[in-house]
Design a protein that fits this description.
With 162 residues, the chain is mostly beta strands. The chain is 7% helix and 45% strand.
Length: 162
């Protein structure tokens, strides 16, 4: 992928591509798994101790790329509140990837009260992406370039909000 293409992707998200102003690290650019929709996944991790993740899907169907979806959280799911994609530095970073079937997968380690890996799955619903499931895993490990869950895990269930 050319530098010019990367700059167009960043421009579509509103990020500054000027090296003097950069406040993020490009974590993932996936131009393969969403190609049939003429889309590219772009995941950015902010500098700082919270390692905030922002996930963007960019349409490349037109010369001026356009963001079709983006998130900095896993939204409300069942009785669970939304979850910001910022992690404590001791836990590790949140990650995002695309699967060959076009799903977006976001993985984030959390401490509540035991250490868990939450895995949010987002699916294309015609004009945008929507959360399809949130699962949690008590057994997981870091295996570059991302988190690897072990076992089947289970659907995330939260106590009703008070």
């Amino acid at each position: 992928m050319s530098k010019q293409t990367v700059e167009k992707l960043l421009d579509a998200t509103g990020q500054d591509a000027n090296p003097q102003e950069v406040q993020y690290v490009i974590q993932t650019i996936d131009a393969v798994n969403l190609k049939r929709r003429h889309q590219v996944l772009l995941a950015l991790t902010d500098f700082g101790t919270s390692h905030a993740l922002s996930v963007h899907v960019i349409s490349t169907a037109v010369p001026k790329f356009v963001e079709v979806w983006g998130t900095r959280e896993i939204p409300v799911w069942n009785d669970c509140d939304s979850l910001d994609l910022a992690t404590e530095s001791t836990l590790g970073i949140a990650t995002a990837s695309a699967k060959p079937d076009g799903q977006i997968i976001i993985k984030i380690p959390v401490q509540e009260p035991e250490r868990l890996l939450l895995v949010g799955t987002f699916i294309w619903i015609g004009k945008t992406y929507s959360v399809a499931s949130v699962r949690e895993f008590s057994r997981f490990r870091w295996k570059a370039p991302g988190w690897e869950q072990q076992g089947a895990g289970h659907a995330r269930v939260c106590a009703e909000n008070e």
